[in-house]
Amino acid sequence: TNKEIQKFGIDLISKILHFRITSKNTNALPIKKNDFCRIWARSGLLPSLTRALDNFSSDKTLRVDYPSKISEILLFFSKSDEIVKQLFCTQEVLQPLFSTLPKLQKKPLLDTLKAIKDISLESRTLEELQKARAI
Predict the structure, then answer these.
(1) Across the chain, how many H-helices and E-strands are there?
(2) How far apart are the first and last CA of the chain?
(3) pLDDT tens, residue by residue, 61-105
(4) Contacts of 33 (CB under 8 A, 6+ apart)
């Protein structure tokens, strides 16, 4: 089903972002999470994540694990570079994100609010945040 595919994708993204290199080979190149975030943000993943956050937070059977995973992923994105923060701070992402906030439980709500705080620290995002009535 569609939710099964979404769950698989969310699990995969979460594992990639939490992956740590434990190689003894000092010549191994570190995986830069910012690069993954930039590629995914440019590919349009953020609007899909916010829609999935809304869907999973409305589903009583899935509202424990997946909203937390999605909010952690959004937190990774919010800690990325300026380009990712600007892609995060679009109306296509912010409007559904803000409408989902009342449905979230404590941990996903806190992570999502931290992500919003992180993107608000970038001066180029303030206008979009104002349009979304966040500030």
Answers:
(1) 8, 0
(2) 38
(3) 766 689 999 999 999 999 999 999 999 999 999 999 999 999 999
(4) 17, 76, 80
